[in-house]
């Protein structure tokens, strides 16, 4: 399927996918659980989550497009086609958008208090599996990669929870 792409190009697409999923899951669950713990109404949590996911998916895609284009232009020392940059941006947009639904979904069906815990759990599980999938594609240790993604993404989630708890008690 991807035989006509170089390993460097595919690595760039994998980077966009992993970056989009990890950033979406970690930042979305961090924000949502933080504001849920702060005592914000369920409707506000859902609205905030939807706005965050859409705005950030677009912003991350544009940032990925510009950084990929700039990097490729630098490497070639010339103007380049924007085709690869567009594909990477597309991957970034949809990976961010779809992954953001993982932490948002529990708030559709549960109270904010219960949803926050399920959202955190599902997000940590998604991060672990993202690490495993990336490792399988890259032929590296899947458990180690899954745990790395779980711990690093979990740290970002933890920050959101702590900030929400701290600011919500003011």
Automatic annotation (TrEMBL):
<feature type="transmembrane region" description="Helical">
    <location>
        <begin position="115"/>
        <end position="135"/>
    </location>
</feature>
<protein>
    <recommendedName>
        <fullName>VIT family protein</fullName>
    </recommendedName>
</protein>
<feature type="transmembrane region" description="Helical">
    <location>
        <begin position="45"/>
        <end position="66"/>
    </location>
</feature>
<dbReference type="Pfam" id="PF01988">
    <property type="entry name" value="VIT1"/>
</dbReference>
<feature type="transmembrane region" description="Helical">
    <location>
        <begin position="86"/>
        <end position="109"/>
    </location>
</feature>
<keyword id="KW-1133">Transmembrane helix</keyword>
<feature type="transmembrane region" description="Helical">
    <location>
        <begin position="147"/>
        <end position="167"/>
    </location>
</feature>
<dbReference type="GO" id="GO:0012505">
    <property type="term" value="C:endomembrane system"/>
</dbReference>
<keyword id="KW-0472">Membrane</keyword>
<dbReference type="GO" id="GO:0030026">
    <property type="term" value="P:intracellular manganese ion homeostasis"/>
</dbReference>
<dbReference type="GO" id="GO:0005384">
    <property type="term" value="F:manganese ion transmembrane transporter activity"/>
</dbReference>
<keyword id="KW-0812">Transmembrane</keyword>
<dbReference type="InterPro" id="IPR008217">
    <property type="entry name" value="Ccc1_fam"/>
</dbReference>
<feature type="transmembrane region" description="Helical">
    <location>
        <begin position="12"/>
        <end position="39"/>
    </location>
</feature>
């Amino acid at each position: 399927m991807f035989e006509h792409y170089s390993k460097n190009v595919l690595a760039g697409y994998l980077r966009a996918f992993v970056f989009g999923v990890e950033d979406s899951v970690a930042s979305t669950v961090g924000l949502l659980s933080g504001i849920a713990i702060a005592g914000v109404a369920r409707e506000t949590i859902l609205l905030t989550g939807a706005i965050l996911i859409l705005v950030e998916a677009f912003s991350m895609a544009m940032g990925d497009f510009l950084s990929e284009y700039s990097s490729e232009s630098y490497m070639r020392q010339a103007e380049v086609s924007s085709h690869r940059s567009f594909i990477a941006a597309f991957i970034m947009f949809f990976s961010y958008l779809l992954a953001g639904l993982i932490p948002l979904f529990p708030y559709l069906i549960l109270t904010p208090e219960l949803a926050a815990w399920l959202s955190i759990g599902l997000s940590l599980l998604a991060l672990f599996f993202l690490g495993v999938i990336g490792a399988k594609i890259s032929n590296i240790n899947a458990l180690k990669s899954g745990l790395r993604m779980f711990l690093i993404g979990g740290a970002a989630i933890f920050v959101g929870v702590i900030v929400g708890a701290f600011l919500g008690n003011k």
